[in-house]
Automatic annotation (TrEMBL), chain A:
UniProt protein name: ABC transporter
Family: Belongs to the ABC transporter superfamily.
SMART domains per the UniProt record, alphabetical: AAA
Molecular function GO labels: ATP binding; ATP hydrolysis activity
Residue stretches making up the ABC transporter domain: 19-249
InterPro entries, per database record: AAA+_ATPase, ABC_transporter-like_ATP-bd, ABC_transporter-like_CS, ABC_transporter_ATP-bind, P-loop_NTPase
One Pfam family linked to the record: ABC_tran
Keywords for this protein: ATP-binding, Cell membrane, Membrane, Nucleotide-binding, Translocase, Transport
TrEMBL record, chain B:
Claim: Transport is one of the keywords in the record: yes
Membrane topology: Multi-pass membrane protein
Main location: membrane
Protein name (database record): ABC transporter permease
Source species taxonomy: Bacteria, Pseudomonadati, Pseudomonadota, Alphaproteobacteria, Hyphomicrobiales
Region (Disordered): 1-20
GO biological process: transmembrane transport
Family recorded in the similarity comment: Belongs to the binding-protein-dependent transport system permease family.
Annotated Gene Ontology cellular component terms: plasma membrane
Domain spans labelled ABC transmembrane type-1: 138-323
Length: 265, 339
């Protein structure tokens, strides 16, 4: 894996976006029945900060990210990014999906360059693609097809595909979920470094309490579906952090308590 | 011709050879020698057993048999010296034996013993005679058939592709086109034949239309189902990355649907063969279909067998070409699905 410090081209400073979410309700239809998923979500995220969304499976975390990306629109309530209502998807807000979902007919290089090609700026910025591939440690795999990659490599390609667009808001839906634990630890450190250098706003959905506490400045804990925010933890520790920090252990106990898992600690 | 399943038949000789390492040896190839012997047997049979009805070209057939035998002996002796040709020959070794038995047996029941009714079942040398004496007319018939098929198939495939993409993408188009497709699509293209020959100025243009029609239906249905079955996440991802609708169609929907599109191309090719032959028999005064019809008129049965053989070769070559195009276009699928 290439150290972050060697990279310069990708995600150069563009100020992060501010998020304002005001009493957002959202429901799906499931076999004719309404299925309420988000039940009055309210929070703001300061520009350039790193926030984690933590909650039980199926509570609506991915749904909230899709709303922020503009892929779906809330049943009720306002979602504002930089003061404007979220409309259609925009390349300034990039989402990394739970599944890498690479395009199987495109090589790694062509997958990463997808956003630049879609916006018609690929010719001028081919170097950015190379840089992004290098950033996630996949140099030499440019011409590989997705089925020739391991699950973790595919997930890293998905990350590169997002980063190459220099987003101002990065929506990460369990981006490290499929990685082996070693790569995962490395990638966690790299995510922090990336966020610090790029100055973007990052929202990370994860199941992993340690990951949320180690990476982010603030952890929002969701209750079971229909989701509300049950806790808002500040992680008041400077970077670089140490996994063994006693303060992290304390916060972890608190977070598990909010998730109803205190007994396991 | 219609049961073409591309998922079953894409394995070519070379990959199959790799699965049969026993055939790979570089030493003397015993089966090859046996095959050569059986072809020498065919030649001897033709030369030594007198014919019931004397026929020309027996000598030529015997010479061809000996040439095949000689080729087999060379391959058997030289191992893999001739590369792919040698590998392919070795792979089809059992087939060479079987073919010798069939040709020899056929020779016996027709020319030699006369067990089958004479005019309807032609001897091998009488079919060879057609190739030697009537190759000019056969060749031009193949050329006309290929030309007609190419025109009809091209227009049909293009129209089917565009229609399929349109109704796969647009709800409004699907609303209007789907019922029409349901109603008219299953109608065999040949049912339009009398009308088409009446409406179109020439029988040639009518035939192009009919072949196009036969190709367009499977092509439309499969392109459409291909577009409709594209993983919706692909669109979501492309949209968050800033893709516009044109990009979504050209760079996401169509590439993702291509495997289905090729199934449509194969099915369309199969149905277009059927229409081609019927159109040539009934309307156009050219091509292999017409040749068959003409041979029937003169009770020239050997010519019919020869034309059928040529037609089979033409159709299977076209299918092979399409397989090559698919293999090249969809090379990314290798390792993803079983070919
Ligand atoms: N398109 C949809 N139609 C109907 N229901 C949906 C749809 N998408 C999501 N849901 C429902 O919404 C709920 C929340 O889904 P979501 O994907 O947001 O969960 P999640 O919090 O991301 O869970 P996980 O952590 O397991 O990924 C689930 O109960 C799911 O069944
Ligand atoms: Mg999810």
């Amino acid at each position: 894996m290439v150290a972050l410090a060697t990279n310069t081209g990708v995600a150069s400073a563009a100020a992060g976006q501010k998020i304002d979410i005001q009493s957002v309700f959202h429901q799906f239809e499931l076999e004719g029945e309404p299925l309420p998923v988000l039940d009055g979500i309210d929070f703001s995220v300061e520009p350039g900060s790193f926030v984690a969304l933590l909650g039980p499976s199926g509570c609506g975390k991915s749904t909230l990210l899709r709303l922020l990306a503009g892929l779906d629109h809330p049943t009720k309530g306002d979602l504002k990014v930089d003061g404007e209502n979220v409309g259609d998807p925009d390349p300034s807000r990039i989402m990394v999906f739970q599944d890498p979902t690479l395009f199987p007919w495109r090589t790694v290089w062509d997958n990463v360059s997808l956003g630049l090609e879609a916006r018609g700026i690929l010719k001028k910025s081919r170097q950015r693609v190379d840089d992004a591939i290098q950033l996630v440690g996949l140099d030499g795999f440019d011409k590989a097809y997705p089925h020739q990659l391991s699950g973790g490599m595919a997930q890293r390609v998905a990350l590169a595909r997002a980063l190459v667009n220099e987003p101002r808001l990065l929506l990460l839906d369990e981006p490290l979920g499929k990685l082996d634990s070693l790569t995962r630890l490395t990638m966690q450190t790299e995510l922090v470094g990336l966020w610090q250098r790029a100055g973007l706003t990052a929202v990370l959905v994860t199941h992993d309490v340690e990951e949320a506490l180690f990476l982010t400045q603030r952890v929002l804990i969701f209750g079971p579906r229909p989701a509300r925010i049950v806790a808002d933890l500040k992680v008041d520790l400077p970077y670089p952090r140490h996994r063994g920090d006693p303060r992290l252990a304390e916060l972890r106990r608190e977070a598990l308590g909010h998730l109803g898992l205190a007994a396991t600690w | 011709m219609t049961s073409i399943d591309p998922s079953l038949s894409g394995r070519d000789e070379t990959s199959a050879v790799e699965e049969a390492p026993a055939q790979r040896g570089t030493g003397i190839w015993v089966l090859g020698l046996a095959a050569a012997a059986s072809w020498v047997g065919v030649a001897a049979l033709i030369e030594l057993w007198p014919e019931i009805i004397p026929q020309p070209y027996g000598r030529e057939l015997a010479i061809i048999s000996l040439v095949i035998a000689l080729g087999l002996v060379i391959v058997a002796a030289t191992g893999r010296l001739f590369g792919v040709a040698a590998i392919t020959t070795r792979y089809y070794g059992p087939w060479f034996v079987a073919a010798a038995i069939v040709v020899g047996g056929w020779e016996i029941v027709t020319a030699k013993a006369g067990l089958l009714p004479v005019p309807f079942f032609s001897s091998p040398q009488s079919i060879l005679e057609v190739f030697f004496d009537d190759w000019g007319r056969l060749g031009i018939s193949v050329w006309y058939s290929v030309l007609l098929l190419a025109k009809g198939y091209f227009f049909g495939a293009a129209a089917g592709f565009v229609t399929g993409v349109t109704i796969g993408w647009s709800r409004a188009a699907s609303y209007w086109v789907h019922p029409l497709l349901r109603l008219i699509g299953p109608l065999p293209a040949t049912a339009w034949l009398p009308l088409a020959f009446f409406i179109f100025p020439t029988s040639g243009s009518a035939s192009v239309f009919l072949i196009a029609l036969a190709t367009a239906f499977p092509m439309t249905i499969l392109t459409w189902s291909g577009i409709a079955s594209v993983n919706r996440d692909y669109y979501d991802i492309a949209r968050t990355l800033g893709a516009k609708p044109s990009f979504l169609i050209l760079k996401v929907a169509i590439p993702a649907a291509l495997p289905h599109v090729f199934v449509g191309l194969f099915m369309g090719l199969g149905t277009s063969f059927a229409v081609l032959v019927v159109a040539e028999m009934l309307g156009v005064k050219a091509g292999l279909g017409w040749y068959l019809q003409w041979a029937q008129g003169w009770a020239a049965y050997a010519n019919m067998y020869a034309a059928l053989l040529v037609m089979a070769l033409m159709c299977s070559s076209l299918i092979t070409i399409l397989f090559r195009v698919r293999d090249w276009t969809l090379s990314w699928q290798k390792g993803l699905v079983r070919w």
